[in-house]
Specification:
Elements: H1 13-21, E1 25-27, E2 37-39, E3 43-46, H2 56-63, E4 68-71, H3 75-82, H4 96-107, E5 111-118, E6 121-131, E7 134-142, H5 147-161, E8 166-170, H6 174-177, E9 182-185, H7 186-196
Length: 205
């Protein structure tokens, strides 16, 4: 980690993209904290695209077409939902400078959201940064059971179809490990990232 930005500082999008290209990403201590610090973990979470594990229960949910899956229709709604306090998490690392910067990245075509809708309501989703043939997953949320899981499955399917080489999850959790997420040492991750930044894959449209 390096020094934080001064309070009220805006994160330049060109700097943010350079940070991702070098294996670094920003976080904040809490939503109300105006400062941002940079993180370069010793181990990095990734989901190997050729080893994604689809639980049988999730396959069933997808076959039921319970959710309407959309891409990039309400990016701001997704990032705001990811920043909401929940029973299992009373704080978030998404603060005002981060929200502003990622919305600008979205407007520039570097950020994308996968969204689960039901009865006209946004009930789940995820968002991340796209660079070269890499997708850096940032956060996800669910307001209905399995909504974010279905979004993750659709994300992996899209990345596979479009010749992406890397799905970065930053860190691993027990939840993500159920889908095949693994920890890789920094050196190995940087090699994977270097290869993924060669060429270009189109996420959307």
């Amino acid at each position: 980690m390096t020094r934080p930005y001064a309070p009220g500082y805006r994160i330049p999008t060109d700097l943010l993209l350079k940070a991702y290209a070098s294996g670094v990403f920003p976080m904040a201590e809490s939503a109300g904290d105006p400062e941002v610090f940079w993180v370069r973990p010793e181990t990095r979470g990734v989901i190997p695209l050729n080893a994604f594990h689809m639980p049988k229960s999730l396959r069933k949910v997808i076959r039921q077409n319970r959710f309407d899956i959309r891409i990039d229709t309400d990016f701001a709604g997704v990032i705001d939902a990811c920043a909401e306090e929940r029973e299992e998490r009373t704080s978030t690392w998404i603060n005002a400078p981060i929200r502003e910067a990622y919305i600008k990245l979205f407007e520039q075509g570097h950020c994308h959201s996968v969204e689960a809708w039901r009865d006209g309501l946004l009930v789940g989703g995820l968002y991340g940064v796209k660079l070269g043939r890499a997708f850096f997953g940032e956060s996800m949320f669910s307001r209905e059971t399995d909504a974010s899981k279905v979004c993750l499955a659709h994300l992996v399917e899209r990345l596979r179809e479009r010749d992406f080489a890397l799905l970065d999850t930053q860190f691993t959790t027990e939840h993500l490990k159920r889908f095949g997420a693994i920890d890789v040492p920094r050196g190995r991750y940087e090699k994977l990232l270097h290869e993924a930044l060669k060429g270009n894959a189109v996420f959307y449209p």
